[in-house]
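Researcher: Sequence of O-succinylbenzoic acid--CoA ligase follows. Predict its structure.
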Amino acid sequence: MATLRLVSGTPDEVLAALAGVLDGSGTPFAPLPDDAAGAARAEQAAAPDRPLEDGCAVVLTTSGSSGEPKGVLLSREALIASAQATHDRLGGPGQWLLPMKPYFVGGLQILTRSLVAGTTPVLLGETFTQSAAAMTGARRYTAMVPTQLTRYLETDADALRSFDAIIIGGASMPEPLRAKAAEAGVTAIPAYGMTETGSGCVYAGVPLDGTSILLDDEQRILIKGSTLFSGYRLRPELTAEVLKDGWFRTQDRGELVDRRLRVVGRVDDVVISGGVNVTLTTVQARLLEHPQVKDAVVLGVPDAEWGTRVVAFVVGEPAAIERNALRDWVSETLPRAWAPQDVIRLDALPMLASGKVDRQGLLEGVR
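Model: Prediction complete. Tokens:
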């Protein structure tokens, strides 16, 4: 069996290691985050001193936004298939700007697409506008998380408009943000996917070529295709639980609207609070419709009285996010029982390096 080496998670180191596994000259690797705690988690998940499963090119550590980080095994074939399918959907290969960390799948795939296309990726400099100006490709692409798009629409809208496509992943793209990007003339394409699917595999609700989706009786999203991971590092029981007959059983629920996939939330986003089923993502979406709410996340917290207490963490104008006012706002369109019992105002939602909200950190702060 092959051995696994650890590499620094800097763009140059990851690009060099990635080039080696894609052309067959290098050895499988696991990139380490640039913070000590993240590097320790990644090294533990990668287990470099243990024999490596066959066919693996890269081991990526999941962000751990809602649970224990896992080592995800990605093959050379899956990485290339994802890059090629992305270029086919976007209209052809191009040059990519890297505004995210390359030790997460979104950043890694920007580098993969660059290598497959034979183009030189541009790294994010002091400003997004300066970085965009450094690009020379006939077609120009980038990818980012919703939080970045929100910020750049305020400061770098002209630069955003210069890209042929901007893939938005890592978290769902709120409808107000989608509308704002469209109004600004920015081609922002919401993508659905995860580390286990080799990055985004569904663009604007439509699967990439080579990818199939299915909804089971619980509306759980199942995914099959050439970009799927091979399994979890040294976790055969967990691999067998989520990979069945070639289908990956995600933790997300969805629905098909005009033959397009709409992700409606995680399987565990429906909680029972006071005997009532509450869909947390629906409450969150309603809060984000408030004109003075800039960001929000809604979580269920174990509670002796309610079973699960619905807690909203909100960023916005202080007067607008007073508890009773927001409960009334939610109740205008949703059942009163869905209104959050607690509202916690924050200056900003805590984020992981992957661009996802640190849900575990928020939960630990209120338990």
